[in-house]
Amino acid sequence: MTSTVTRHRPSPKAGRYGFLQVLHAEWTKFRTALGWVIGMMVAALMVVLFAVLAGVSSNQKGSSPVPIGPGGGPVTDSFYFVHQPLAGNGSISVSVSALKSSIPKGPGDLRPGIVPWAKAGLIIKQSTRQGSPYAAIMATGSHGVRMQDNYVNDTAGLPDPVSTASVRWLRLDRSGDTITGHASADGTHWTKVGTTRVSGLGPTAQVGLFVASPAAVGGGGTAGSVSTATFGDLRIQGGLAGSTWTGGQVGAESPSFAGYPESTSGSFTESNGRFTVTGAGDMAPAVRDSLPTGAHLREILTGTFAALIAVIVVGALFITAEYRNKMIHLTLAASPRRSRVLVAKAIVLWAVTFVAGSVGAICATPLGERLARRNGVYIFPVSSLTELRVALGTAALLATASVLALSVGAIFRHSAGAVTTVIVAIVLPYILIAIPFIPAGVSKGLATVTPVAAFAVQQTLVPYDHVASNYTPYYGYYPLAPWAGFAVLAGYALVSLAVATVLLNRRDA
């Protein structure tokens, strides 16, 4: 008689249960190791503690209030305004034959320069109150003719800067709340630039000439500039409620106004129908480096840096401690499929770190914001959904960094080497982008290709094409979108985990 021996094959269900056993074993190891649990608690507390310190350390009490635009966001609303009240509908036109800017190169050293977004033109504005609605058409330093309204909207018109050989004629027409802007190269043939609806102008609005000169950007910093424009051929149709032109600086005390360079000031003169107007400031959304009394969520969550070090150490020790104590032999004997062990460790570590990070960030954000506001700091507004995205993104950043440390620990089998490597890969680039005067290209490069790109999950500020500024990670502007920045760190972690898995299967324990 011939007997047949049937080899037993574990069912898929049994295989899955085997992995669950490994997962439970790794969770048991983690929760029974007091040092690792304390490490995660410290990470969460660091996020909260630094948020408290950020809230109480910046005292802006007594500062001028930040202007708020029609859309509810902070704005810069400072410029020199030569105006009269216009009752009801009407039209105003003017020619701009010169726009020259000066930039300080040192104390008392004012030199001619180019301020790309220097502005000279016509404006219809509800009032001289900062943040009030408006529409304007203007010639700019380097961006041709533009029509802008309510600080955030910008429409391009005729190209090329103005000069005596390239005069630009500008016109604004009001019909109720509708403002239409036109531009011309000869004062006869007009091209429509744009039409916008400006709610809240009221029956009588302020209309006239303006000059604005934003701070010049360079070398990682800014310097207040001043610009002078020459106007002619001023014509008005409609009911002027005044009889004389009044000139003055709007927003002279605004915290977002960089001020005039030394020995300069705003002014206007009129002679034979020609106006010469000198002004400084800008009409635009406020950005971080133009608002010294402001802060954003990333600055509240500076404790992420300290928490990052804590989770890196715990992540590395979660695997290297077993090599040091020779426990790795028992672990691998209990689970012959070695890759399961590393995957189970990664899942447990990621989940625990994510929970700790979420608790820390969710508690830290409202607490830090409340304390900062009490001290007069203006917090750039975000929606509740964005705030939650930042908190959970911060937790995911910490969790993924801990898995990266785990993977490197499995590769090196030594905690000191693993911790040092991951800190150099993440913390060192973070320190470098935190230096305000590091070249923008270097800063953006580090925030694009290194794991520190994941800090983009904390980004809440929006760059504007019509506002020149230092859009660098130092000020909270990352080159990658939040999800893309996180994907960079996740890529490093997954590749490291794959390498660690291959080495774990090939090497002796």
TrEMBL record:
Q: One MF term from GO for this chain?
A: ABC-type transporter activity
Q: Could you tell me the keywords of this UniProt record?
A: Membrane, Transmembrane, Transmembrane helix
* Transmembrane segments annotated in the record for this chain: 33-56, 300-321, 342-368, 388-412, 419-438, 480-504
Q: What GO CC annotations are associated with the protein?
A: plasma membrane
Q: Which Pfam family, any one, appears in the UniProt record?
A: ABC2_membrane_2
- Source taxon at top rank: Bacteria
Protein known as: ABC transporter permease subunit
